[in-house]
Design brief:
By secondary structure, this protein is α+β, with helices and mostly antiparallel strands. The chain has one domain: 2-Layer Sandwich (TolA/TonB C-terminal domain). The chain has 3 helices and 5 strands, in the order H-E-H-E-E-H-E-E.
């Protein structure tokens, strides 16, 4: 009878341990790229600083400064835990833009300073971020 009591106690302990491990809400997967997070990644200085950086650093060839060249390029990248940007890719484009516009947007993102990383459950996590880059020539 004593053996049965030990088996029940051991089973109960293992059962409780598995619930406590699975129910730990502080656990985040550091290798996973999150698409939905509690706090979004942020460019240093916020949205206004991002817009200022983009307008100062995008190169638009002089010969293409025509009102007919307008549109948006959607770029995606991963904001790493240290704030660096990786996996930069063009998602899609719309409008009428010069052929080298994709390369200009990729170069722009590659030259951005480190961002504040996204956070999930209070911890910095790798976060996918999609950014629209709009080209518009003021006439």
């Amino acid at each position: 009878m004593l053996g049965l009591s030990r088996k029940i106690s051991l089973f109960f302990f293992v059962l409780m341990l598995s619930f406590s491990v699975k129910g730990n809400s502080d656990t985040v997967n550091v290798d996973h790229v999150y698409r939905i997070v509690d706090t979004l990644p942020e460019f240093p200085g916020g949205r206004e600083a991002l817009l200022r950086f983009m307008s100062q650093h995008i190169r638009f060839p002089v010969m293409n400064r025509s009102p007919q060249f307008q549109g948006t390029i959607f770029v995606t990248f991963v904001v790493e835990i240290d704030g660096s940007l990786t996996n930069i890719e063009i998602l899609r484009r719309n409008g009428h833009l010069p052929e080298d516009s994709d390369e200009q947007v990729i170069r722009l993102v590659e030259n951005m300073p480190k961002w504040t990383p996204g956070r999930n459950r209070g911890k910095a996590v790798r976060t996918q971020f999609n950014l629209p880059v709009r080209f518009s020539i003021a006439g």
